[in-house]
Amino acid sequence: MNKSLCKPVLYIALLLGSVITQPADAQTPGKATGLQSEHLINPIGLDSQHPRLSWQMADNREGATQTAYQLIAGTDSVAVSSGKGDSWLTAKISSAANLVSYQGKALLPFTKYYWRVQLWDGTGKRLQPSSIASFETGMMDMRNWKGSWISDNKGIAVNPAPYFRHTFKVAKQIRSARAYIAVAGLYEMYINGQKIGNHRLDPMYTRFDRRTLYVAYDVTAQLQEGKNAIGVLLGNGWYNHQSTAVWYFHQAPWRGRPTFCMDLRITYIDGSVETVTSNTEWKTSLSPVVFNSIYTAEHYDARKEQPGWNTPNFVDSTWKPAIFRSAPSQNIVAQSLQPIRNVEEIASKTITKVDNNLWVFDIGRNISGVSKTTVKGDSGTVIRLKHAERLNKNGHVDQSNIDLHYRPTDDKDPFQTDIFILSGKGEETFMPKFNYKGFQYVEVSSSKPIELTKESLKAYFMHSDVAPIGTVTSSNKTINQIWEATNNSYLSNLFGYPTDCPQREKNGWTGDAHIASETGLYNFDAITIYEKWLADHRDEQQPNGVLPSIIPTGGWGYEWGNGPDWTSTIAIIPWNIYMFYGDSKLLADSYTSIQKYVNHINELYPTGLTTWGLGDWVPVKSVSPVELTSSVYYYADASILAKAARILGKQADFAKYSALATKIKNAINAKYLNTETGIYGKGLQTELSVPLYWDVVPKNMKGKVAANLAKRVEADNFHLDVGILGAKAILGALSDNGYADVAYKIASQETYPSWGWWMVNGATTLYENWKIDAKSDISLNHIMFGEIGAWLFKGIAGIHADQNHPGFKNVILQPHFAPGLNEFTATHNGPYGEIISSWQRTGNAVIYKVTIPANSRASITFPQGKVYQGAKLISSAQPYKVSAGNYTFEVKTSAN
Asked: Is 108 helix (H, G, I), strand (E, B) or coil?
């Protein structure tokens, strides 16, 4: 082979998200690949004493499996590469596990550890060792901080963001340097004029007075011999919320002028260590960021710029000394998750001049993020950039669907409107640092004449930069658009915590998040975001177990919207993480919180039925009883708690909460199920689908209830008549119980009310209301109807996790060859590797292709009919079990 061709071919394959494999007949022994520590690639700044180490087995031989592993970890990469570990060297462990917690010598702070894994295959053969991976510890303990919390001597009402700077000398040759910065608020950090890292909106939002995050950076390359300068710019974020809205974040108990603590730890070649710290020797001044609000926008006055403020030789004689501040919390911990980034640059699609000095840019799609404008004009020219999701009939942007919860006290803080005042020094560029918005259109107005072109404005899609791990493609264009729009809405609402919408609220609504969690986990590697957010749950939970409806919160949400239909996040998300990753840590960390929550509901509602909740929010027309839907979620919580107790070895709790779950189920069925007709309540779509989906229906009644649901959908002309709880349940309730064809008819509809109705009307994200012209609840970028993104994997491709072998150790495949759909492919890169479930109609048969990654297996349930693997006839009466490999089946059923 021409070796010069190898790299470009591999690069193209990576861009396409594909995996280059050997021909099917190749027998290629593999090794461990994809090594991660705490579900991150070579992270720095970990606080865990027992970080989780994971890998995949790259082996394309049919039936490839891991029978044993050995882990080697140490501080010397050369020694580790030769099989010697001074920190942890396990014996050969007979196990197929690919997720192991570090159990070696106690980890030291500020230390880089290298590790690798050695595998043995199904024949007992020792495979090639993995490449070397690493993780680096951070503070590990708050007592290791040397710096002080500092700020400027300003109050919470002061608008301009503060600059901070400090100079120091480096006199020896540097081996490595790490910066650790903890902030209440937001920040950007610079060394010698260079911005450090590509993160946006760091650190992630938490309940600041209970948990504060720090971020670690490798800054070795940014330091220089001689004089150096550090610069820090602080933003308000959610810490000093100056904008006023209905959730009262401006009255949050933690609120204060932004503050930070920093240690710059320099290790020299001679082994000595010097730490440059934040203290009152630092100097501060106000910046050109004259106003910043995470909720509304950012204002920047370029006339106030101080060129070189973050460089060593800047003259700071007019700057003031920083002041000491108390720490915002006593729990400063590492931010160990994928950061927010400007993930995608989007060029303007069109520019329209509406009138003199007013233009409207259309970026062609709805996103979360920011715009960046480049313009030239006179000093003092005021540029206003108003962001919105839609236009008025007169061509101006229209914010009426997203600004209804804003309660401005004056006109100085316009909603989603950046203000840029020009310095007049040639071409100038502005992009907000401490804000993001939800928008498709940007209306640009100017106080003085300027010239703009389509190239004058770009947009950046911002979100937590989680890796995509799922794909869906089909012969139905509308289905493909729905999948893409669902992912766009999911990512638009992922900013270190899941939100409901990126414009109107930016709140961590619990109901929206658990409903969309499977969609997120099929499509993105989002475990670190959810682990962080469940820590927020634990911070917010009251001693009696009550959780607020938005998390984090400044206090709003404990009194409204927080029944079990919403705040079941505390149980559902840890369970979903366990199912998708086979990782029980979040279940264990959340166990006490789930228990407190379930116990509290039991105390309030001893009969097993609860009326606590919002119900089926934003329904099409029919309203289902809150008692029914909330009681079903209460049952789901109790069931998850019982299963978690069994997994964690708590047998008494398993018996206790299993009995409670049975009591709840019986109470629901006693009141709402007519056992003669098989109808719950009045037989509405939500009333029938929610008990089916969450396994409340007695086994002997499932067929009857499912048939009634299918009849009800048919009576509704195969259209939806649900709110968000029904939308979560209805597709799965049908496809899991013999009516995948009915579910597909709903999913593929293109007339109101349906997901496809949005698509044919130009949607690039999911909406908040089935009605496009609704008078309220009409954000155009909500994730609350996002379950359809998961259902495409479950209900059509049939890819399911197995709770007895979680993390797709055993893949349950139950494909449905929906009438009207000619081909469908879904892929999911799980903990063991890529799973592919793909089918295509050909003549009177369906060709079904499956890929199962090494070290896992699958159980395939085919639609009833004749199934062939080559010339071999396979019985479709029982699940067909396969090991790792690639398989092709021909399925002939009457439905084909």
From this structure: coil
pLDDT tens readout for residues 627-651 = 999 999 999 999 999 999 999 999 9
Residues 293 and 161 in one domain: yes
- Considering the domain architecture, whether residues 414 and 529 belong to the same structural domain is answered as no
- The tokens for 252 are 């949050």
Dump strand ranges (E) for 651-766.
673-674, 679-680
- Condensed to tens digits (0 to 9), the pLDDT of residues 802-843 reads 999 999 999 999 999 999 999 999 999 999 999 999 999 999
Average pLDDT over residues 566-594: 98
Among residues 401, 432, 464, the one where a domain terminates is 464
Q: What is the mean pLDDT of the chain?
A: 95
Is 801 inside a domain boundary?
no
DSSP three-state, residue 838: strand
The identity of residue 526, as a single letter, is: A
**Which of 2, 19, 766 has the alpha carbon at shortest distance from 756?**
766
Question: Can you say whether the dihedral through the CA atoms of 781, 787, 792, 797 is positive or negative?
Answer: positive
Kindly give, in sequence order, each residue whose CB lies less than 8 Å from that of residue 833, ignoring residues fewer than 6 positions away: 56, 57, 58, 853, 854, 855, 856
Distances (CA, A) of 159 to 79, 87, 102, 251, 258: 54, 50, 47, 16, 11
Q: Rounded to an integer, what is the distance from CA 834 to the centroid of its chain?
A: 20
Residue 363's closest CA among 376, 374, 377, 352? 352
- Are the C-beta atoms of 835 and 815 separated by less than 8 Å? no
> Are 407 and 485 contained in the same domain?
no
Proportion of the chain above pLDDT 90, given as a percent: 95
In terms of domains, do 790 and 819 share one? no
Whether 450 is in a domain gets the answer yes
655 lies in the same domain as 547: yes
CA–CA distance, 458 with 364 (Å, rounded to integer): 11
Token look-up 């009310």 returns 753
C-alpha 456/C-alpha 359 separation (Å) is 11
Looking at the whole model, is its pTM more than 0.70? yes
CA–CA distance from 800 to each of 86, 522, 805, 809, 876 (Å)?
A: 41, 10, 11, 11, 18
C-beta separation of 33 from 55 below 8 A: yes
pLDDT digit string (tens) for 592-613? Answer: 999 999 999 999 999 999 999 9
| pLDDT > 60? residue 473 | yes
pLDDT band, very low/low/confident/very high, at 864 (cuts 50, 70, 90) = confident
Judgement on whether residues 180 and 35 belong to the same structural domain of the protein: no
Length of the chain in terms of residues written: 896
Number of domains comprising the chain: 5
Same domain, 670 and 739: yes
Going by the DSSP 8-state scheme, the letter that residue 795 receives in this structure is I
Q: Which domain holds residue 622?
A: 470-796
For 708, phi and psi rounded to 5 degrees?
A: -65, -35
Q: Checking DSSP bridges between strand 340-347 and strand 259-268, what pairing results, if any?
A: unpaired
